[in-house]
Write a structure and sequence with these properties.
There is one protein chain. With about 60 residues, the protein is mostly beta strands. It has a single domain, classed as Ribosomal Protein L24e, Chain: T (Roll), CATH 2.30.170. It is about 10% helix and about 45% strand. It has one helix at about 50-55; strands spanning about 15-20, 25-30, 35-40, 45-50. Strand 1 (about 15-20) and strand 2 form a beta hairpin. The chain is elongated, with a radius of gyration of 16 Å. The model has no long low-confidence stretch (mean pLDDT about 95).
Length: about 60
């Protein structure tokens, strides 16, 4: 699965998981992507879009 938003290009961010003893191990924070049908210049496409772009109406969903 592509971990990149079609609209804004948001991808995974990286950081550390901290255990109780404060040992750091690398982890990734994936964006909340949803597979939606959008209207892309008159044709319908199924792409991954982050929920922030869906909520702010940056993409138009296909009917």
């Amino acid at each position: 699965m592509a971990k990149v938003c079609h609209s804004c290009g948001k991808g995974p961010a990286f950081g550390n998981s901290r255990s109780h003893s404060m040992v750091a191990t690398r982890r990734r924070f994936n964006p909340n992507l949803q597979k939606v049908r959008i209207d892309d210049r008159g044709r319908t496409r199924r792409v991954y879009v982050c929920t922030r772009c869906l909520k702010s109406n940056k993409v138009t969903k296909a009917a």
